[in-house]
Structure formats: C-alpha cells, structure tokens
Amino acid sequence: MIYNNLNQDGETSAITEIQRYLRNISNSHPEISLVELSGKYDVQTRKAVEEFQHLSGIPVTGKVDYITWNTMVKENNLHMKSKEMPYKLPCRANDFGKIAGGYSGDIVYVLKIMLNNFCRKYKNYKKLEINDKYDHETEEAVKEFQKISMLPVTGIVDKETWNTMVSIYSTCKLYDY
After folding, report:
1. Over 80: is that where the pLDDT of 64 sits?
2. Separation between Cα atoms, residue 131 and residue 121, nearest integer Å
3. Which of 35, 60, 155, 172 lies 20 to 30 Å (CA to CA) from residue 98?
4. Whole-model pTM above 0.70?
C-alpha cells in the first residue's frame, strides 16, 4: 500500500486524503460509494477503492498502490477542474472611457455577448450582431442598459458601466442555461 512506511500520524493523514479524493470522485461517479472521512482504512474505504479501481480499469485489489494512487489523483484533479468557476476576463484600465462609437476591439465582443445574454433574460434589450465593432446599435443597447441600471446615459462604456454590467451578469449567472 502506498502509505505502509508512514508513521501513525502520517498514515491517518494519507488515509484521510484518500478518503477525500474518493468523496470528490464519487460526486462525478455515483457508482463509487460515499466514504466518511474517518482517517481509518475501514471496510467502507476498501469497498470504495475497489469500486474506483473497477471503474478505472485497473486491477481490483482494494489496496492503494502507486497505479491506483496516480489514477485517483488524476481523476480527483479532473473533478476539481470541472467544479471551478470560469476565469474572469482581464481588461486594461485604459480601455475604459474609449469604448464608444467607432471603437473596435476584442472587448466589444465580450460587451455584445453580455448584452445579448441580458436580451435573453429581459425584454428591454435588442439582440446585437456579435463582432468587434462598437456601432450605433451597440451604443443604443449600452444606453438602454445605463438607463435601466440608473447610470449616466452616455452610450460610453466606462469603468462604472462595465463594473455594473459584469456584476449583474455574474450575479444573475446568465451564462448558466
């Protein structure tokens, strides 16, 4: 077993880590029994290890050898990645105050995607063509957003408009459909 040479305190810690990984993996694979974080390699833990080994196509021994451990770590990492939130899009501070009629750039794609998602949720928004051009229709959609959000209605996406838009977009989880 992978934790044979550890002392009593280290052994409990390693077993708890195995149990934690099995719990995480069982969230993605319900065919693996849910284990308690007891720190003891009990019958419940052995059964979950066997189920994991069977599911992973590795020899079913009920023991956590190096192959089982490495496979468990990889599967746990996949599970954890699937649960993490998407990264935020970084924007340069000098972009703000310049996003107005005639502007062209990648940030306009993001702006239009957010506005189109508001359109899916609220009736007041007009659907925009997704491109990098800040055209008259985009300006009008921004003005409508500013009006509804009680911001100064300028049609220019400044920091206050951007932060309000991102905050509402994130709060409403408009990307979860």
Report:
1. yes
2. 21
3. 172
4. no
